[in-house]
Amino acid sequence: MPAPVDFVALSLLPFGRRRDIAEQLRRGRPAADIVDELTVPRPGDSSSHPDILRSRARIAIEAASNADIEAIAWSDPAYPPMLAAIVDPPPVLWLRGCRPALDAPAVAVVGSRAGSPYALSVAERLAADLASRGVAVVSGLARGVDSAAHRGALRAAGATVAVLGSGADVVYPREHEPLAREIAAAGAVVSELAPGTRPRPRFFPLRNRIISGLARAVVVIEAGEKSGSLITARCALEQGRDVLAVPGNVLNGRNRGGHALLRDGAKIVETADDILEELGVGLGTPPATVSYRGRGGEGRADPLLACLPAGEACDLDVIAGRSGLTAARLLPRLLDLELRGLVRRAGGGRFIRS
C-alpha cells in the first residue's frame, strides 16, 4: 500500500519539528493540515511551499518503491506502538525487509564500535539467546558490538532489526552490506531518513532514540566514557525503558561508561535470563506465549481489558489515565494482549479491543 504523501512530507521537515508534529497527530489533526501549517510559503523561497514538499515526498516514495523499501506511516496499524509512544517519533519509518520483525517484543543491544573479543562474544551470545526465545534484537549495524548482536540473532534464526543513520538503502559502514542483506531477509533494516540519504555525523545520535524507542530494554555492552551507546541509554531512560549493562574489565578502561550505568542503578546482565527477568517475561518461554497471571490465579482475564470499551479505539494517554499505568509499563501489557488476540492496533498508536 502506498505511503500517504503527507506523512512522508512531514518526515522531510527539519528534525526539530518532530515533537510538535507528534503532538498534533496525537490530537487528531490531519497530516495534510499540519504540512500546510508548517510550510507557510516565504517570499522569495519557493522551497518552503507545501506543494514543493509534497513533490519531494512523491519522489521519495518512488525511490523507495524502486529499492524495495516501504514507508510505514505513523497512522498505519503496522507502525510499532513502542516507537509511536516516544515524544518525537518519526512520521514515517522506512523499512527494507519483513514487517513482522517489528511485531515481536524487542531488546536493544548496543556497545563499543571497537569492541574487545570479550564484548563481541558476549553480544553474540546474548543476542542468540534472546532471539531463540522470540525476542527481536535491535541494534545500529555499526562495527563492533552492534554487528556482533545482529549476527548472534541471525545465527539463532531469530529476528533482528538494524536502525540506520542513513537511508534504508544506504548501508554504513560499506563492509556491512552483506550483513544488511541477511538482516533484511530475516528481519528488517529501518530508518527515519528517506531512501538515498547519505550518512552524516548528526544523524547517528538522532537514530539512537529509535533504537531505544523500538525496544522494551537497552543492554549496553562495553561502553567508554564518551560512547554513543550512552546516548542510547539516555534516550531509553527518557522514554521509560529499562537500561541494563554487562560488567567488564576494570583494568583497561574500555567499559567505564557501562560501569557508570551500573553505579547509577542499571541491572547487571550476565545471561539472557537476567534480561527476561527484568522484563517480567517467563524464563525459558518465548515472550509471545507468556500470558497474564492475575492474583486470583491461572487464567484470570487481564483487568487492562476493562480500560478498553468494545469498539472504542483508545490512545496511550487515555488507557494510561484509566489504568493508572505509565506508558513504559502499559505498552508491554498491550503488546502481550495483542499477541494473544485480545486487542489490535487501530493506527496512530491507538488500540482497540478485539
Question: Secondary-structure blueprint of this entry?
Answer:
Blueprint: H1 5-11, H2 18-26, H3 31-38, H4 50-66, E1 70-73, H5 81-84, E2 92-97, E3 106-111, H6 117-132, E4 136-139, H7 145-155, E5 160-163, H8 177-186, E6 188-191, H9 203-213, E7 217-221, H10 229-238, E8 242-246, H11 256-263, E9 267-268, H12 272-279, H13 316-323, H14 327-339, E10 343-347, E11 350-353
Parallel strand pairs: 3-4, 3-7, 4-5, 5-6, 7-8, 8-9
Antiparallel strand pairs: 1-2, 2-6, 10-11
Helix pairs in contact: 1-3, 1-4, 6-7, 7-8, 9-10
Largest sheet, in brief, is: 9 strands, mixed
When the domains are counted, the total is: 3
Share of helix among residues? 25-40%
CATH topology of the largest domain: Rossmann fold
Radius of gyration, in angstroms, nearest whole number: 20 Å
The proportion of strand residues reads 5-15%
Shape: globular
What is the number of beta strands? 11
- The succession of helices and strands, N to C, reads HHHHEHEEHEHEHEHEHEHEHHHEE
Widest β-sheet, arrangement of strands: 1-2-6-5-4-3-7-8-9
Mean pLDDT: 86
End-to-end separation in angstroms reads 24 Å
How large is the count of helical segments?
Answer: 14
Low-confidence stretches: 282-300
In the CATH classification, which architecture of the largest domain applies?
A: 3-Layer(aba) Sandwich
The top-level CATH class of the largest domain is Alpha Beta
Q: Structural class of the helix and strand makeup?
A: alpha/beta
Give an overview of the whole structure:
This protein is of the alpha/beta class and 354 residues long. It has three domains: 64 residues, no CATH class; 181 residues, Rossmann fold, CATH 3.40.50.450; 63 residues, Orthogonal Bundle (Arc Repressor Mutant, subunit A), CATH 1.10.10.10. Helices cover 40% and strands 14% of the residues. The protein is built from 14 helices and eleven strands. A nine-stranded mixed beta sheet has the order 1-2-6-5-4-3-7-8-9, with helices on both faces. A two-stranded antiparallel sheet has the order 10-11. Helix 1 packs across helix 3, helix 7 crosses helix 8 and helix 9 packs across helix 10. The chain is globular and about 60 Å long. The protein starts with a helix and ends with a strand. About 5% of the residues have low confidence.
